[in-house]
């Protein structure tokens, strides 16, 4: 009996140790809250040259005249060829990659949104809203919100600098956490994007903040050093971009 009690005590102690939260300093939390993904854009500029690379290897350059979407995701692109001036229409199934520039109207709207939330000043860089660089779209086969039949769409890659293990794609229909504002003053808190499309290995899924804990092992569990440093009971959804970047860095040595 004494042996059983001793074993049970050791087991409970081990469980408690395993479940113990990691306490981070204010500086560490501030770093983890910094948003590292690129800003998500939904409307390309029709005035700048876009580039489409088809699955057959051919490249087409021109101006985006029309973009068709389904649930916010691009599935068809109309391009006016920059040389021949001919209008061409491409389905997402034909396209491997696409590079476009954000429209000025959406950039201006993004800046206004940035300025309307005090939280952004400490967690985001304004240049992510105003940058004139190309937006990278990649053909991916996904189930929209994990509910629809799999279909090919052109999805904006928002972590191009650290996407070699986990690729994160903009969800054009993502909602944001609520904040607080009084009498037209800038919003306090909130503004955290609630969902992305995420690819690891051959799996592409819609990841919502409510499902973050359930998928934490799948995303990061194959790196024991990372899991020890950032156990899921110690981190928040707000840290997601930092965690993807840190996991990638740790895996790449």
How would you describe this structure to a colleague?
This protein has 253 residues and is of the alpha+beta class. Helix content is 30%, strand content 26%. Keywords: Signal. Residues 1-19 form the signal peptide.
What are the main properties of this structure?
disordered N terminus; seven-stranded antiparallel β-sheet; 8 helices; alpha+beta; 10 strands; single chain; 253 residues; globular; three-stranded antiparallel β-sheet
How is the secondary structure organized here?
Elements lengths: L1 H18 L6 H8 L16 E5 L4 E12 L2 E9 L5 E5 L3 E6 L3 H12 L2 H6 L3 H4 L4 E8 L8 E6 L9 E4 L25 E6 L2 E6 L3 H9 L3 H6 L10 H12 L2
Antiparallel strand pairs: 1-2, 1-5, 2-3, 3-4, 5-6, 6-7, 8-9, 9-10
CA radius of gyration is 22 Å
* Secondary-structure element series: HHEEEEEHHHEEEEEHHH
Coarse shape: globular
Mean of residue pLDDT values:
88
Total DSSP helices: 8
Report the biggest beta sheet as strand number plus sense, adding barrel if it closes: 7 strands, antiparallel
Strand order of the largest sheet: 4-3-2-1-5-6-7
The low-confidence runs, each spanning 5 or more residues with pLDDT under 50, are: 3-10, 12-18
Give the class from helix and strand content and strand pairing.
alpha+beta
Our estimate of the beta-strand percent is: 25-35%
Number of strands: 10
Helix share of residues? 25-40%
End-to-end C-alpha gap: 48 Å
TL;DR of this structure?
With 253 residues, this protein is an alpha+beta fold. Helices cover 30% and strands 26% of the residues. The protein has a 7-stranded antiparallel β-sheet, with no helix packed on it. The chain has a 3-stranded antiparallel β-sheet with strand order 8-9-10, covered by helices on one side.
């Amino acid at each position: 009996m004494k042996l059983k009690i001793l074993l049970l005590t050791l087991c409970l102690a081990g469980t408690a140790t395993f479940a113990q939260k990691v306490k981070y300093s204010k500086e560490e939390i501030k770093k983890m809250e910094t948003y590292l993904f690129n800003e998500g854009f939904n409307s390309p500029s029709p005035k700048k040259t876009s580039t489409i690379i088809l699955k057959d290897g051919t490249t087409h350059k021109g101006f985006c005249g029309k973009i068709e979407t389904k649930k916010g995701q691009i599935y068809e692109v109309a391009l006016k060829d920059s040389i021949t001036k001919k209008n061409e229409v491409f389905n997402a199934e034909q396209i491997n990659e696409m590079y476009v520039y954000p429209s000025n109207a959406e950039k201006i709207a993004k800046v206004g949104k940035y300025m309307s939330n005090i939280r952004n000043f400490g967690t985001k860089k304004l240049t992510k809203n105003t940058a004139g660089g190309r937006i990278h779209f990649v053909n991916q086969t996904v189930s929209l919100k994990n509910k629809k039949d799999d279909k090919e769409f052109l999805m904006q890659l928002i972590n191009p600098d650290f996407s070699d293990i986990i690729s994160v794609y903009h969800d054009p229909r993502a909602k944001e956490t609520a904040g607080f504002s009084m009498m037209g003053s800038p919003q306090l808190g909130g503004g955290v994007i609630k969902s992305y499309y995420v690819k690891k290995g051959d799996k592409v899924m819609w990841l919502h903040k409510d499902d973050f804990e359930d998928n934490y092992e799948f995303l990061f569990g194959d790196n024991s050093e990372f899991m020890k440093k950032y156990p899921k009971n110690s981190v928040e959804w707000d840290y997601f971009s930092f965690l993807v970047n840190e996991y990638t860095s740790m895996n790449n040595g």
